[in-house]
Amino acid sequence: MTVDKIKQQKKASSHTFYSKILFVFSLIVLILAIFSSRISFPRLSLIASHLTGSANTITATSRSTITTTSTQKMASSQYAKELEVAQLAVQRAARLTKRVFHEKAKGTVSKDDKSPVTIGDFGAQALIISALKANFPSDEIVAEEEAAQLREDTPLRDQIWELVKSTKLDDEAAEQLLGGAIKDADAMLEIIDQGNSKGGAKGRIWTIDPIDGTKGFLRGGQYAVCLGLMVDGDVKVGVLGCPNLPVDDAAPLAADIGTNATDEGRGVIFSAVQGQGATSRPLGTAGLAEGKSIAMKPITEMSNASFCESVEAGHSDQGVAGQIAQKLGITKPSVRMDSQAKYGSIARGAGDIYLRLPTSKSYQEKIWDHAAGDLIVREAGGQVTDVSGNRLDFSVGRTLAENKGVIAAPAAVHDQVIKVVQEVLGQQ
Ligand SMILES: Nc1ncnc2c1ncn2[C@@H]1O[C@H](COP(=O)(O)OS(=O)(=O)O)[C@@H](OP(=O)(O)O)[C@H]1O
Ligand SMILES: [Mg+2]
């Protein structure tokens, strides 16, 4: 054997040695990354599914099995304080709405656009804005309700004030974090009116829908207390309190879900922070309960998929949705459900697809009806767009002026759904 050959062999074996070391080193780094929870298991499997482009790689284990100690995780992550305040504010506001929900008389009045609003809507908005202003005084707020009507109607104002001043979380530290009680009824009106931001593409702006699905709330159905934070037009934090959804993420979706007479086993908070995944936790009455990571369910067969839509035919074209579902091969009837509870339900894999088809050319969707749900579904592995396949644009004011309709589905099938939506709408 020549000296050259011996040298070559030595070089080759030292290469193999170094690549082995490199392999072992990468393995250790990967294991450390998993255990330090910087990448949670559901997100890893979602990343895997994006890499392979296959829905099937999102395994069943990615769903709802990982318990996160919310406060521990929050402490080190971006928007931790915003998330904690937002969830507690929603939990407290939901407590108020539940009191009204169980009353026969809900203090319902009609707004200028003829839609209903209750003492629950006004009270919840006051409590949420007061918590946000205590923590983030210079942030702007886009909220659904305004106090003008209450300034004219003192008995109604007083009814709301009674509710607001007596609704607290049974946790002193949580109450303190939310800034404590509002001073008096007049201060409450001022606070309600602080939700009058025009919205837009610059700075930190919160969106609040104190009771989304007010009609559902009045009917005894689903409703949601919704809160989102946008930074420069992009949703960073989203929280949905759904008092009438089951706590169990795996409970099958049905129109009458959560219509039991008591609150036993129901009430859930969904939340998400951009880039940090989505979570569900039981809706409580004191501090925050433990959360679980949630992820959308992979659709392996369209014939087994389910889709949800609005109960109100005026809010979404149910005829067109039926045609889309049929063309996709969906065989189950739609699950009609009020409010952003639909977004939460598909995000945790209880349902698969959410279709919201415009009923009029002129209606512009409101940002508070979609901001939180949009982020929660996307962080759970879904895609949310309008009927043309464009992302919802929250940066153009109080409405989604640049979008028509909403289509939310697992990322792996979203293009397929949009293709069919366009075929059906093209035939109209
Ligand atoms: N024409 C039209 N088209 C689309 N959407 C509309 C329309 N009119 C109203 N709204 C908004 O719908 C919000 C309720 O959402 P959902 O339809 O999902 O729930 S519900 O079935 O109506 O309860 C509802 O929110 P809330 O007012 O908070 O209930 C409205 O902002
Ligand atoms: Mg709404």
Strands, helices and their partners?
Layout: H1 3-35, H2 41-52, E1 67-68, H3 70-76, H4 80-101, E2 109-110, E3 116-117, H5 119-135, E4 140-143, H6 148-152, H7 154-165, H8 172-177, H9 185-192, E5 204-212, H10 214-219, E6 224-231, E7 234-246, E8 266-273, E9 278-282, E10 291-294, E11 307-309, H11 318-328, E12 335-336, H12 341-347, E13 353-356, H13 371-379, E14 382-385, E15 406-410, H14 411-426
Parallel strand pairs: 4-5, 11-12, 11-13
Antiparallel strand pairs: 1-10, 2-3, 5-6, 6-7, 7-8, 8-9, 9-10, 13-15, 14-15
The structure holds 3'-phosphate-adenosine-5'-phosphate sulfate and magnesium ion (MG).
Structure description:
The protein is of the alpha+beta class and 428 residues long. It folds into 3 domains: 3-60, no CATH class; 67-294, Fructose-1,6-Bisphosphatase, subunit A, domain 1 (Fructose-1,6-Bisphosphatase, Chain A, domain 1, 2-Layer Sandwich); 302-426, D-Maltodextrin-Binding Protein, domain 2. It has helices spanning 3-35, 41-52, 70-76, 80-101, 119-135, 148-152, 154-165, 172-177, 185-192, 214-219, 318-328, 341-347, 371-379, 411-426; strands at residues 67-68, 109-110, 116-117, 140-143, 204-212, 224-231, 234-246, 266-273, 278-282, 291-294, 307-309, 335-336, 353-356, 382-385, 406-410. The strands form 3 sheets. The chain has an 8-stranded mixed beta sheet with strand order 1-10-9-8-7-6-5-4, with helices on both faces. α3 runs antiparallel to α4 (80-101). 3'-phosphate-adenosine-5'-phosphate sulfate (PPS) is lined by residues 115, 144, 209, 212-216, 310-312, 314-315, 338-339, 359-360, 363, 366, 369. This is 3'(2'),5'-bisphosphate nucleotidase. Belongs to the inositol monophosphatase superfamily.
